[in-house]
From TrEMBL:
InterPro entries: GTP-CH-I_C/QueF, GTP-CH-I_N, GTP_CycHdrlase_I, GTP_CycHdrlase_I_CS, GTP_CycHdrlase_I_dom. This is GTP cyclohydrolase 1. The gene is folE. It catalyses: GTP + H2O = 7,8-dihydroneopterin 3'-triphosphate + formate + H(+). One of its GO terms (cellular component) is cytoplasm. Homopolymer. The keyword Lipid metabolism does not apply. Pfam families: GTP_cyclohydroI. HAMAP family: FolE. It comes from Aequorivita soesokkakensis.
Amino acid sequence: MDLEKQLKDIEAMGNDHIGSSTETPMRTDAFELSDIEKIASIKKDIQNIMHTLGLDLTDDSLKGTPTRVAKMFVQEIFGGLHPDRRPKASTFENKYKYQEMLVEKNITLYSTCEHHLLPIVGKAHIAYISNGSVVGLSKMNRIVDYYAKRPQVQERLTMQIVKELQQVLNTEDVACVIDAKHLCVNSRGIRDIDSSTVTSEFGGAFKNSETRREFLDYIKLDTEF
Ligand SMILES: Nc1nc2c(ncn2[C@@H]2O[C@H](COP(=O)(O)OP(=O)(O)OP(=O)(O)O)[C@@H](O)[C@H]2O)c(=O)[nH]1
Ligand SMILES: [Zn+2]
């Protein structure tokens, strides 16, 4: 069997849970192991990868890497897989009767591409029009961070952020634009360091071209990373 075919077969074995919704594809038993148990298990997997690559795991600089990577996966870069870490975004009454759109722009975004497990680095821009309630500004950054801390595709991340804010604010009138660099494109494969990916999701009033234009004018996509 050629290598390409073998790799395809290995890939297919892990694809039994893939759905087409905006939800991150998770198995029903995703949280049966505690975080500590997950760290112990991933530590062994990383040890195995490093061993297979021929690295000497008794070397001073390498010996702590399996534990370090396992902790980083579970507690940091994939920490947003756990619903317990979903930010509490309490809302307040829009007592100022502010009726225009509110834009939170240039939200720093660090995520991980689910195809190669390499970083996605960029900016998210969010807008909403209040339907009677408002949310603390930092909660928008926290929602971006929570969904970013998962293996992601940028399209799904953009939609998850909008869906969450629509629920929190009880309105369809929410939009998000993400402009991000994928290291899987920039540092390997095609190795195009300059390209970035722009995705958008426009809910409710933002489907109207004038409202959408106003939001896009505020954020002017000259993003620097
Ligand atoms: N739609 C989408 N694609 C992504 C995202 N991140 C990475 N990709 C792409 O997903 C694809 C992965 O599938 P393959 O074509 O099997 O990967 P590959 O053989 O490593 O491809 P190359 O990157 O072209 O070497 C690549 O083309 C990536 O550029 C994302 O957020 N959204
Ligand atoms: Zn990738």
